[in-house]
Specification:
7-stranded mixed beta sheet, 6 helices, alpha/beta, 11 strands, two-stranded antiparallel sheet
């Protein structure tokens, strides 16, 4: 089913806790975070796009499509997901997009496989771990494009979980993994310099 799924890397945030520096381009283990995420995602899907509202010049070297939000005003992850759906609907023959966060370098290499196994027509399969749902790691039917656009245009809320609850969701739990002597939540994400240092320690533990 991978050929019917497009991957979407969400890198559209403001990185405010990194002082405004685009965190998805920061180096981890000698490579940009975006490259680590891209390499982890590539075997799981067909085509891939990066959603960013920053200068696209920083991303052109990754060799994938670069798309910005189609609605103004930094509307959050749902705006990026809508942009991904619109990209997929226009350019690709796919039924779903698989979204991942661009600041989460250790997400499962069987993310797509396990979400697809739980996919139900018209509903969103969403990842969880440690009792917490991770709504930016989800398998979205492209058929939800118009309902999502209407949801965002209403202006009532931009909360991802609110839309998911309206659309219908199925939660798929992923276990904590062992890297050397360290237990790692697969959806550990990098928001601060301290998080980046912790990620570097995780990489070192896995060597």
């Amino acid at each position: 089913m991978a050929e019917h799924i497009a991957g979407l890397i969400l890198a559209g945030g403001r990185s405010s806790r990194m002082g405004g520096t685009d965190k998805t381009l920061l180096q981890l283990a000698g490579r940009p975070l975006t490259r680590l995420v891209l390499d982890r995602l590539r075997p799981q899907v067909g085509r891939i796009a990066i959603n960013t509202n920053a200068d696209p010049a920083g991303f052109v070297g990754f060799g994938v499509d670069i798309i910005s939000d189609t609605i103004a005003g930094y509307q959050g992850p749902l705006a990026g997901i809508l942009a991904g759906m619109e990209w997929a609907a226009v350019k690709l023959d796919v039924t779903h997009i698989l979204s991942v966060a661009g600041d989460t370098p250790f997400f499962p290499d069987d993310l797509a496989e396990r979400l697809v196994a739980r996919a139900v027509a018209g509903r969103v399969a969403v990842a969880s771990s440690n009792g917490r749902v991770h709504p930016t790691f989800a398998l979205w039917p492209v058929s939800l494009r118009k309902p999502l656009a209407a949801f965002l245009e209403s202006g009532d809320t931009r909360r991802v979980m609110t839309f998911l609850e309206q659309a219908g969701l199925d939660v798929v739990d992923f276990p904590v993994t062992q890297r050397g002597s360290v237990e790692v939540d697969p959806f550990f994400n990098i928001n601060t310099p301290e998080d980046l240092a912790q990620a570097a320690r995780i990489v070192d533990e896995a060597k």
